[in-house]
Amino acid sequence: MPTICLCEVFKRLLVEHGEEDALQAIGIMSLGIIAELTREIAVNAAYISSEFEISMADSIIPATTRSINATLWTQDADFESMSGVQYIEKKR
């Protein structure tokens, strides 16, 4: 998982549920493989950001998963049309 995901999850949970829940969540997330941001990933993220007109943070996620030949599973519609992505629509 990209380190940027730790930041995004922590921030959202900190605001919505408080520090204890945020720390617990990233503690659990940290049990998985954490992929650091490398120069190669950063450059590929810039290409993705430009092509799909998404934010820097969002572009780092698919760039990271591509760098390790992983599939990105998401409910974020911004990623729906990208290769290497399994998009699952949110239930309402």
Secondary-structure map with pairings?
Elements: H1 3-17, H2 19-29, H3 39-52, H4 56-67, E1 72-74, E2 85-87
Parallel strand pairs: 1-2
Helix pairs in contact: 1-2, 3-4
Spans of at least 5 consecutive residues whose pLDDT stays below 50 are none
H and E string: HHHHEE
What does the overall shape look like? Answer: globular
Distance between the termini: 27 Å
Total helices: the number is 4
Helix content: 55-70%
* Spatial order of the strands forming the largest sheet: 1-2
Largest sheet: 2 strands, parallel
Number of domains: 1
Based on CA atoms alone, the radius of gyration comes out at 14 Å
Mean pLDDT: 94
The count of β-strands is 2
Approximate strand percentage: 5-15%
What structural class do helix, strand and pairing data support? mainly alpha
Can you tell me about this structure?
It is globular and about 35 Å long. The model has no long low-confidence stretch (mean pLDDT 94). It has 92 residues and is mainly α. It has 4 helices and 2 strands; from the N terminus they run H-H-H-H-E-E. It has one domain (3-87).
Q: Concise description?
A:
The protein has 92 residues and is mostly helical. It contains four helices and two strands.
